[in-house]
Every structure is written in C-alpha cells, then in structure tokens.
Design a protein that fits this description.
It is a single chain. This protein is mainly alpha-helical and about 325 residues long. It folds into two domains: about 10-185 and about 295-325, HUPs (Rossmann fold); about 210-280, Tyrosyl-Transfer RNA Synthetase (Orthogonal Bundle), CATH 1.10.240.10. It is built from 14 helices and five strands. It has helices at about 20-35, 45-50, 55-75, 90-100, 105-110, 110-120, 125-140, 155-170, 210-220, 235-245, 250-260, 265-280, 280-290, 295-325, and strands spanning about 10-15, 40-45, 80-85, 145-150, 180. Strands 1-2-3 form a three-stranded parallel sheet. A two-stranded parallel ribbon has the order 4-5. α9 runs antiparallel to α12. The protein is elongated, with a radius of gyration of 22 Å. The two termini are about 20 Å apart. The chain binds adenosine-5'-diphosphate and tryptophan. The site of adenosine-5'-diphosphate has 19 residues, from α1.
Length: about 325
C-alpha cells in the first residue's frame, strides 16, 4: 500500500527545445516558480519528449543545460523543489509502456497537438504519437495531484486522467487523478503580434542582452501612426509586452500618453527595453554565475534525480505487482 503524500504534489515538465523566451516566462515559468510555496514541487526537463523534434546530440545537450540554467536563475530553489532531467528516471519509460496497454488508439488519435505538429511538417513518428502516454507516465509516476500548464497542454492532462482511471479500474487504485492548473498569461504576443513562439521565429529570449536585445525590441512590428497622433494601446504589441512588466499605474500612464498622442513607438520601445533589462537584471547575473559552475548545476540535477527516482521506484513496484509482473 503506497502511503498518500502529506502535501499536495505539483509537477510540471518543460521541453529543452531552445532558450526560454518571454512567452515561456509569463506563460509558464513564473507560475512554476511561484507555486514552489504551494506544495511539494517536482519540475523536470523533458528531454525524452524533445527527441521527437530535436534529433541532434549537441543541440539536445546544450538546450538541456540552458533550460536548467534558466530555471535556476529565475528562482527555482532546489532546496524546495525536486528538479531533474526526465531521462535520469528511466522507470518512467517502463510505466509509459504499461500505461500504453490501457490507452485506446482513439484517445491518441484525437490529440490536437499531434495533428498540429504533423501539419507543421514534423515527421509523424511513433514517438510523436505516443508522446501523451509518456506525459501521462511523467505525471503518474510521481503520483502528482496538480499539473500547471499552458492551454495547449490541457488535452494531454485530460488524457492522463482517462488513462489513470482506466488503470485504477483495471488493476488497482494506485494513481491519484491529477488536475491541471491553467497558467495565467495565456498569450504573450511576439515581435509580429502573433503568439510568441520558437516555431514562429518571433521571440525575445529572457536572457538576451545588449545589442541583441535592443535589436529585437526595436524590431517589434507597429503600425504607421505618426508620432503626434493618438494611438490605441490595446492594439499595440509594444504596449502589450510593456504591460507584463509594468505596475498598474505605469500601465495607465503609458496608455494615457498613447491616447493623447505625441509619443512615438520608438519611445515606447525604449521604455519596454528598460523594463526588460531591469526586470531580469539579478536573474541575468545569477545565470552568468551559475554558467561558470557547471558541476554545481549537474549536482543539483543529480540530487533531484535521486529524490525523484526514489518516488518513481515506489510507484513502479506497486504497478508491477498490480499487473502481475513479479518474481516468485
Ligand atoms: P514554443 O511555442 O516557443 O515552442 P513551448 O510550446 O515549448 O513554446 O511552451 C512551453 C510553455 O510556455 C508552455 O506551457 C506554453 O503554454 C508556454 N508558452 C509558450 N509561448 C507562450 C506565449 N506566447 N504566451 C503564453 N505562454 C506561452
Ligand atoms: N509536453 C509538455 C510541453 O510541451 C512538456 C511535458 C512533458 C510536461 N511531460 C510533462 C508538462 C508532464 C507537464 C507534465 O510543454
């Protein structure tokens, strides 16, 4: 019998598919960091998942290190949170296999994210199709209660609920049915006004700085309203991004200047640049510092894996026993 956990267990994964951008920060990372106070958090770098799209040894390795540094610099506290690489707990792939045997083809065939990725031209590998089962295993192996995610991942959590229910009914009540928690900022605009996303090439990286950052911010697409004319803040990408960093008063003040006219987009972009630089200043320092101490980062991930693996082993042993895989 597995003892129920004392505190609510919160779990989320992030794919190491490149450097994190402002959409990732306001859409996901910020909430993950804040939730560290709300329960027992397990956060991991989903490198097995990334293999469905990143098939280059150096790139996957580099991205994994980048995401670890990004999270630690942005406030992930390894004293509070179990932080690890997905692949350091290989039991998760065994659980995924077992779960796949109670997962209907029809359930996976309805996955919107799979269909969208195939439409975008990503090869329809078996791994890409099976991806939600591995995700269910990620969640269930730590017997998680709450999964903070962006809107695009909600269907995967619903699939996890379905799969967990089926397993519990077919074999034994092992898994709590997890809930999702929707991350607040659901659509951070990119440079071109579409949703900021690596796949649209319209991102501002969290840790961009100097000329590179300036170039990005100055390149945000705006309309051609002359400086003197009134402007509509609700339709301006610069204002949208500025709002993420500003206090209510600062936001109201800039909106009033837009509406009165007399402010050019160049000036608004400078204000935004100042905000981005200031907001991430201490995280940027911390990231540089950590980047120079790779052994320490590796140590944090290994210690996270040790703690995660201990939990995973409890689950996988109960699962093996429940399905009839055991020694005489
Ligand atoms: P990308 O679209 O750049 O590939 P991912 O799909 O890896 O980003 O997203 C990782 C997390 O960041 C998800 O929880 C997702 O919902 C969130 N996210 C990504 N882009 C945005 C955005 N523009 N606005 C809000 N949240 C976002
Ligand atoms: N599929 C998620 C994404 O692309 C990453 C992920 C993998 C995840 N396993 C998970 C998220 C388990 C939450 C829980 O964003």
């Amino acid at each position: 019998m597995i003892q129920p956990t004392q505190r609510k267990r919160i779990l989320s994964g992030v794919q190491p598919s490149g450097k994190l951008h402002l959409g990732n920060y306001f859409g996901a990372v910020k909430q993950h960091i804040a939730l560290q106070e709300a329960g027992e958090c397990f956060y991991f770098i989903a490198n097995y998942h990334s293999l469905t799209t990143v098939q280059d040894r150096e790139t996957l390795g580099q991205n994994t290190r980048d995401v670890a540094l990004d999270y630690l610099a942005l406030g992930l506290d390894p004293g509070k949170t179990v932080f690890f690489r997905q692949s350091d707990v290989p039991e998760v792939t065994e659980l995924a296999w077992i779960l796949s045997t109670v997962t209907n083809m029809g359930l996976l065939e309805r996955a919107v994210s799979y269909k969208e990725k195939v439409e975008k031209g990503i090869d329809a590998s078996v791994g890409l199709f099976y991806y939600p089962v591995l995700m269910a295993a990620d969640i269930l192996i730590y017997r998680s209660h709450l999964v903070p995610v962006g809107k695009d991942q909600v269907q995967h959590i619903e699939m996890t609920q379905d799969i967990a229910g089926k397993f519990n009914r077919a074999f034994k009540e092992i898994f709590p049915i997890p809930d999702f928690r929707l991350d607040k900022e659901s659509k951070v605009p990119g440079l071109d006004g579409q949703k900021m996303s690596k796949s649209y090439g319209n991102t501002i990286e969290i840790f961009a700085e100097g000329k590179a950052l300036e170039k990005k911010v100055m390149g945000i697409v705006t309309d051609s309203t002359p400086v003197a004319d009134p402007k509509d803040p609700s339709r301006c990408n610069v204002f949208g991004l500025y709002s993420l960093f500003a206090t209510g008063e600062e936001k109201a003040a800039l909106a009033a200047r837009y509406q009165a006219g007399g402010i050019g987009y160049g000036e608004a972009k400078k204000a935004l640049l100042g905000k981005i630089t200031g907001y991430f200043a201490s995280a940027r320092e911390k990231r540089k510092d950590l980047a120079g101490r790779p052994d320490e980062v590796e140590g944090i991930l290994r210690e996270g894996a040790r703690r995660a693996r201990a939990e995973a082993r409890i689950t996988i042993e109960a699962v093996r026993d429940a399905v009839g895989i055991f020694n005489y």
